[in-house]
Amino acid sequence: MKTYLYSIVGGLSLLGLTAFTYQELSSKATGTATNVFICTGTSSKKYHYKKNCRGLNACKSEVKQVSLTNAKQLERTLCGWED
């Protein structure tokens, strides 16, 4: 019974993780993610899917949320910590 319960809990956690990962990957692959984060500094060149991305730690300016299309128009590329 204990093993069965652990299997159910483990399966549910794995299922949730898989669904989140799939959603995140599919939005990155298709470009359907609507918002990303950028550092507004003059030398910034990357965009980030997560506001707490490690790549934004060095940002001395403001971090803004913009559309992925806008970030690409600004010639930003995906942060290396996120791919």
UniProtKB/TrEMBL annotation:
It comes from the Bacteria. This is Uncharacterized protein. It comes from Pustulibacterium marinum.
